[in-house]
Amino acid sequence: MNTVGEETPMTDTGADMPAKDVNKKRSGPTGHYAKFERRLKVWPAYEKAATSHEPHWFKDLLSLWRPSGHSSGEAGLRVAIRNGYLNFYRLGQSVARVECVSGKLRADVHYKYVLDEPPPGLKPKSPYVRLTTKSVSYRGTWVADYKGLSTLHEWISAAEKDHAQPEKSIVDGLVAKNDNVVDLEMAIPAWARSKSAVRMDLVAIENGTVVFWEVKTILNSEILCEAALEEDKFPPVLEQLAKYRVFLEQDSHPKLVQDAYRNTAKLLVKLRKLADKLGPALALGSSIVTASQADTLAVASRAALVVVDLPEDNKRNWNSWKASHEGKLKGKIPMCVLENPGPLVFACASE
């Protein structure tokens, strides 16, 4: 269920293809390793903003953070740690991208959440305005006031009402039911065998292992299987998940991933301590806390698919998909099929 950015088809689709294709596909380059990290620059700046006696928009964002295992409710946000910055999401929409620059925090916000019209000179490829201390600006010019949580609630409402896709509520529901989710909207960076970022919906830590989940609803054409009946034709989801497997087959990549998510767990624990002081206090999942203290993590070599029904869909589509398509995917990829968002167990994903 990839809605952030676009993907460029990759020639090297790898090990989820039939055996005759695997050897051919694996002959590509292996010496170029991507930079995959999860970190925050200048941690003291985040700590200072969150503990200051003065009002600060970072406090407001943290107070609305609902970690995995908890419902996001009417205005809760999800946090994703990136390479040097934080993203706060509402139903898959990035409400604020927060980073430290020159020792101070700043946030980039899509102008559509803040303004009715774009400010003069705004470029379509970079449609963001900047939240600094008490105001929102574009290229140093004031465009709006920031009045605390009330302003943030307005932005969240705009993001959810006008821009969030219905399917993203499914992903958010899965995060609420699985307290081991450590990342969402995850992007594997471009590397030697893929010239564009490849994205995945959820990353979790299960029994000391980093696992990956791609989420699709039954109306998504990428899990329809008519083409799989023809020779050398496969439903698109198989190619998508194969890209992750090819990435993880390279010698250095699993180490990059496990280091990134051990660091993610450590940062989530530190952020949660700050957020709990602002209220409400919400516990992180035990898998995340354990990973924050671990010397190493395993990394699953394959990504799994979870297929979920849409709540507003009639059962005709659900029954039709299960009858005509589910069986054709089984045995090709790890898969979990749910009528409603619920617990995900990678070890039990049927193949």
Set out the fold topology:
Blueprint: H1 19-25, E1 39-40, H2 43-51, H3 57-64, E2 78-81, E3 83-90, E4 93-101, E5 104-110, H4 111-114, E6 128-131, E7 135-138, E8 141-145, H5 149-162, H6 168-177, E9 181-188, E10 198-206, E11 209-217, H7 236-249, H8 253-278, H9 286-293, E12 298-299, E13 304-308, H10 315-329, E14 335-338
Parallel strand pairs: 1-3, 11-12, 11-13, 13-14
Antiparallel strand pairs: 2-3, 3-4, 4-5, 5-6, 6-7, 7-8, 9-10, 10-11
Helix pairs in contact: 2-3, 8-9
Characterization of the model:
The N terminus is likely disordered. The longest helix is centred in the C-terminal third of the chain and has 26 residues. This protein has 2 domains: 205 residues, no CATH class; 124 residues. By secondary structure, the protein is of the alpha/beta class. Helix 8 crosses helix 9. Strands 1, 2, 3, 4, 5, 6, 7 and 8 form an 8-stranded mixed β-sheet that branches. Strands 9, 10, 11, 12, 13 and 14 form a 6-stranded mixed β-sheet that branches.
